[in-house]
Design a protein that fits this description.
By secondary structure, this protein is mostly helical. It has ten helices and no strands.
Length: 171
């Protein structure tokens, strides 16, 4: 990490001790530092104080930062705040951001399945590449029973020529 920042995440570190410094690094001027901090928080756990910053990073100029912010938001305890922002991230121009937002919606959407399922169903029915649609189908599987609204899109995906999409749709 540049600018003298060292991420304090080592096996011997207590994740709770590392989180405050990581939250501060989300505001670093270097995109690489913001990216690594968001990724690390996604691994060690997102404290409540980081949620607004990660939501803000979904609009970062760097697609890698946006992607890692979506990744980190997958395990937050407040789906009412993050689900609408992750749904908006499904429209991102970066395929990586869209995939990480879809994966995050599969997790966070379990607390708000209606909105998340509808958005993932739209992604599944979109003209995005098949591998992205497969991630949307997997995310719908993560949501589970609350994803009933997506059944028509999943049935269509089962007929896809792409084997990975078919497999994800029946998962």
């Amino acid at each position: 990490v540049r600018a003298g920042h060292r991420l304090p995440v080592r096996p011997e570190d207590d994740a709770r001790d590392a989180a405050p410094e990581l939250v501060g690094l989300l505001q670093a001027s270097e995109a690489g530092t913001r990216e690594k901090a968001a990724s690390a928080l996604g691994s060690v756990g997102v404290p409540t104080a980081a949620i607004p910053l990660l939501v803000e990073l979904l609009q970062d100029p760097s697609p890698r930062v946006r992607s890692r912010a979506a990744y980190a938001l997958r395990n937050t305890a407040n789906p009412r705040i993050v689900v609408p922002r992750l749904i908006a991230a499904l429209q991102d121009s970066s395929d990586d951001v869209v995939v990480d937002a879809a994966i995050a919606l599969g997790k966070a959407g379990q607390g708000e399945p209606g909105e998340a399922s509808a958005a993932l169903a739209q992604l599944l029915a979109s003209d995005r590449p098949e591998w992205i649609k497969a991630e949307a189908a997997r995310a719908l599987g993560d949501i589970g029973r609350g994803a009933d609204v997506a059944v028509p899109a999943l049935i269509t995906a089962v007929s896809s020529e792409d084997a990975s999409l078919r497999e994800a749709a029946v998962w």
